Amino acid sequence: MATLFENYFGANSTGASGSHGKSSKFNLETLCDFSHLNPRVQKHLKNVYTCLMVATLCATIGIFMSLNGWMNYPRLAVLGSIITSVWLFSTEFNSQNQIKCFGLFATTAFCTGVYLNPLIDLAINIDPQILMTAFLLTTCVFVCFTLSALWTEKRTYLYLGGLLGSGTSILLVLSLMSLFGRSELLFNINLYLGLALACGYILYDTQLIVARAQNGETNYVRHALMLFIDMVDLFVRILIILIKNSQKKEKKSNNR
């Protein structure tokens, strides 16, 4: 434990008189040390997260255009995102199809931003700060869980696959049940269980990407799409939770 502490923080040096020397300092270089991953995997991860950043930008453009009424067709966007994502997963990734795969991925992200417009518009109408708060929380949670998965040398999070699969099945059953009768309890279970599963999938998919990269898989676009889906799912659920809490506060203030 002392060794781990000294790796991340500068150790306190104590003189003969018992007074402390230099104070503990946070070691950022140690936090960014992924030397346990081979250079090929590190290069692959750089490509994956670069694609993920571009996808986030494309989704933001889709949201902006939809909010301004230029591409306000959420149902058509859902269909478009399904078609392009299925097309991407069925396309062989090689040097010839690399640009095509990246274009399909960017289109999927753009369509995702368009069909998220109704939810984002609702959040802005209730409180514009909700949107920024949801984005910051999503970024913090995603980064923390991603780093946790990357720092763990043993691929222990891959064992979450069965648990996540069972949880997804339960989530699907709850969603079907809610179609036959609206229940706030079912909705809350679905919402918070989905939030926990989204966090679990970030851990699982990150280590799955590392394992596949170590085995020689180079399709960084497909891997970026996996993480993008996880991030969007996390963002949507955090945003819904913030909207619900804001509406509850507004009702309480109106009842006073």
TrEMBL record:
Major localization class: membrane
> Is Transmembrane helix set as a keyword in this record?
yes
Where would you find this protein in the cell?
A: Membrane
Its membrane topology, per UniProt? Multi-pass membrane protein
Signal peptide start and end residues: none
Q: Which Pfam families match?
A: Bax1-I (PF01027)
Q: Which UniProt keywords apply?
A: Membrane, Transmembrane, Transmembrane helix
Q: Which domain of life is it from?
A: Eukaryota
The reply to whether S-adenosyl-L-methionine figures as a keyword in the UniProt entry is no
| InterPro entries in UniProt | Bax_inhibitor_1-related
Identify one Gene Ontology CC term for this UniProt entry: membrane
Transmembrane spans: 48-67, 73-90, 102-124, 130-150, 157-179, 185-204, 224-243
Q: Which family does the similarity line name?
A: Belongs to the BI1 family.
Q: What's the protein name?
A: Bax inhibitor-1
User: Which species is this UniProt entry from?
Assistant: Didymodactylos carnosus
